[in-house]
Specification:
This protein is of the alpha/beta class. The chain contains nine helices and twelve strands. It has two domains: 117 residues, ATPase, nucleotide binding domain (Nucleotidyltransferase, domain 5); 166 residues, Nucleotidyltransferase, domain 5, CATH 3.30.420. Strands 3-2-1-4-7 form a five-stranded mixed sheet, sandwiched between helices. A five-stranded mixed sheet has the order 10-9-8-11-12, with helices on both faces. Strands 5-6 form a two-stranded antiparallel ribbon. Helix 3 crosses helix 9. Belongs to the ROK (NagC/XylR) family. Its EC number is 2.7.1.2.
Length: 317
């Protein structure tokens, strides 16, 4: 058995998680810090260095051969920089160089968080065994990634598969990204809740106005809540069908908080997909909930680092 390990970092607006991961995807050592997202860039980097410091201090660190990073985006894999929307102190921040320095000059692979979750689902989760897959994270935003021909397809900058910003409503609302009618503007959790409230849904005594509360109301048959999830499902179906038509995926995996809504989302999604995915080569597309849970970002970052190491070995580097 290969005894080498890779280090993985999962960097988001709330937490910075790190792990040492073996070739079977098992997490052997963990470290975590809250993200000081409102602080300056170097303060955020210090939290990353503290997480790495815990990993490098482990007796297992000597077996680490590469570092994989899954980061909130946008990321630029080709430049080694990140500019996470929810970490304003990092703009074109040279994360790869800083991590390499802190990790004893090990090779570093950077991908976006949606691509990392895709890598995890393909390696260990719902997309396992599928050579062509789209994986989506539907929560506060909508992200995603692609597996094509059995390999993670991150694209030159590491953002390929970012389905949240496909426009599915030409005359739709202005999205914060600058486009109109994006999948994210319709299907993200906050937008599901916003639309339900605008159309007359009212929260219960606890005052919870989250998408999870709207999902609970939809389960009891509240027509406004049901309609808001149906609209989200329609947007997701249009984006999935467009992707399938372009690159011939055979499964779409949906994770994130909204993905946990169950049949409230998946029943109208499957129905809408049959209306959008009409061509013979996309008609057999399946939709499944994600399986990897909260460790997906770490496992996916590790998968990317392992793939890089395998590619380098094959190239004789």
């Amino acid at each position: 058995m290969h005894t080498d390990l890779v280090a993985a970092l999962d960097i988001g607006g709330t937490k910075i998680a790190g792990a040492l991961v073996d070739g079977q995807g098992r997490i052997l050592v963990r470290a975590q810090r809250p993200t000081p997202a409102r602080e300056d860039g170097d303060t955020v980097m210090r939290a990353v260095e503290q997480v790495l410091g815990e990993l490098t201090g482990s007796p297992l660190w000597g077996r680490a051969t590469a570092v994989g990073i899954g980061s909130a985006g946008p990321v630029d894999r080709s430049a080694g920089t990140v500019s996470p929307v929810n970490v304003p102190g990092w703009r074109d921040y040279p994360l790869v160089g800083r991590v390499r320095a802190a990790a004893g000059d090990l090779p570093v692979e950077l991908i976006g968080d949606g691509v990392a979750i895709t890598a995890a689902e393909h390696w260990q989760g719902a997309a396992r065994g599928h050579d062509n897959a789209l994986c989506m994270v539907v929560s506060t935003g909508v992200g995603g990634g692609l597996v094509l021909g059995g390999r993670l397809h991150a694209g030159p900058t590491g953002n390929a598969g970012h389905i949240g910003h496909i426009s599915v409503d030409l005359d739709g609302d202005l999205c914060p990204c600058g486009s109109h009618g994006c999948v994210e503007r319709i299907a993200s959790g906050p937008n599901i809740a916003r639309r339900a409230l605008e159309n007359g849904w009212r929260p219960g005594p606890d005052g919870d106005t989250s998408a999870a509360a709207v999902a609970a109301a939809a389960r009891t048959g509240d027509p406004v809540a049901v309609a808001s999830f149906e609209r989200a499902a329609q947007a997701l179906a249009a984006g999935i069908a467009a992707t399938a038509t372009l690159v011939e995926i055979d499964i779409a995996v949906i994770g994130g908080g909204v993905g946990k809504a169950g049949d409230v989302l998946f029943a109208p999604l499957r129905k809408a997909l049959s209306a959008y995915a009409t061509l013979s080569f996309v008609r057999h597309l399946t939709v499944a909930p994600a399986q990897m849970g909260t460790d997906a970002g770490l496992v996916g970052a590790a998968a990317a680092a392992l793939a890089r190491r395998t590619d380098a070995a094959a190239a004789g580097v």
